[in-house]
Structures are given as structure tokens and as C-alpha cells.
Amino acid sequence: MTNPLRGEVIRLYKNLLYLGREYPKGTAYFRERLKAAFMKNKDVTDPEKIQKLIDRGDFVIKELEALYFLRKYRAMKKRYYEPEH
């Protein structure tokens, strides 16, 4: 019998893998860390615990998106505004 949350976990992994392409320390570093995090929790079977881990992964996605937007904002600000000294 398969777990009904399996699809959500796979979706989360794919989304994080996609977002990891722009990670500041590199794609390979991000991929290794992502795989290690998922492998650490591979034996979890309690649906409530799995849902908590999925929620944490969604939080990480939001944090990564914020990091990328901030980096893009800083780059644009640097290009179009004079430095304030």
C-alpha cells in the first residue's frame, strides 16, 4: 500500500531541485544537501510527521524564493542607483 502523501513529497523534491539551480553555493552543493535531507527522513511513516516535514519544505521554498528576489533586487538597485556614502 502506498502512502497518499507520496505525490506531495515527490512534488516538493522536484520543486526544491528546480529552485536549487540558482543557489549561491552551486547546484551540486544544493543537490547533495537536498538528497541528504530527504534520505534522512525516508523511513518516516507517520502521516502527521510527513505532513509536518512537507510544511517545513514549503517554508524552505518560500525562504529560497525570498533569497533570490532579494539578490535580484540588490543587483537592480546597484545598477540604477548611485551608492549612498
UniProtKB/TrEMBL annotation:
One of its GO terms (cellular component) is mitochondrion. It comes from the Eukaryota. Residues 8-59 form the Complex 1 LYR protein domain. Pfam families: Complex1_LYR. GO terms for biological process: negative regulation of oxidative phosphorylation; respiratory electron transport chain. PANTHER family: ELECTRON TRANSFER FLAVOPROTEIN REGULATORY FACTOR 1, GROWTH HORMONE-INDUCIBLE SOLUBLE PROTEIN-RELATED. Belongs to the complex I LYR family. This is Complex 1 LYR protein domain-containing protein. It comes from Culter alburnus. The lineage of its organism: Eukaryota, Metazoa, Chordata, Craniata, Vertebrata.
